[in-house]
Design goal:
Blueprint: H1 5-20, E1 34-38, E2 44-48, E3 54-59, H2 71-88, E4 101-106, E5 112-119, E6 124-125, H3 129-132, H4 135-148
Parallel strand pairs: 1-4
Antiparallel strand pairs: 1-2, 2-3, 4-5, 5-6
Helix pairs in contact: 1-2
Length: 149
């Protein structure tokens, strides 16, 4: 999905506005994940905390009445890239959020569609299908070998 530079800036600004509520404050730390909701009908991008409190929102013009059949997958890729760029730019440094915390894409019922970014103490880990590819087979083989003895 192609969106304009203005829309990219609006998405980044919305995420930054949401995170501004968690600017480092001495002696305080919040436990929350960041939930991001994208609406194909209205074009709205909304950011929430774990308590469903809206932290920020914006309209992405290209999403309004978008007719893409893979809207959620396209938005997931776009948001993952945007979050990675923000992380690389230091936008997540100095937040008073206890690690690990996640950025999660949710639907209108607040059900998780995808985990976009996991922030932990060691490093940032991007979750995708390639990371866990073949894990079931490896675990099954390990368990089979373990039970053989």
């Amino acid at each position: 999905m192609k969106i304009s530079e203005q829309s990219h800036a609006a998405v980044a600004s919305c995420i930054k506005e949401a995170l501004a509520r968690y600017a480092a404050q001495e002696g305080s730390a919040n436990i929350t994940d960041i939930h991001i909701q994208a609406s194909q009908d209205s074009g709205e991008l909304a950011v929430f905390n774990d308590d469903d409190e809206e932290l920020a929102s914006t309209i992405v013009d290209e999403w309004v009445d978008c007719d893409s059949g893979d809207f959620d997958k396209e938005v997931e890729a776009l948001l993952r890239a945007e979050l990675t760029a923000l992380k690389d730019g230091g936008a997540f440094d100095g937040l008073c959020l206890l690690k690990p915390y996640s950025f999660v894409l949710v639907d209108e019922d607040k059900e998780t569609l995808a985990e976009l970014l996991l922030m932990d103490d060691e490093d940032t880990l991007l979750l995708d299908d390639e990371l866990l590819k073949g894990l079931d087979e490896e675990l099954d083989a390990f368990l089979k070998d373990l039970l053989k003895d």
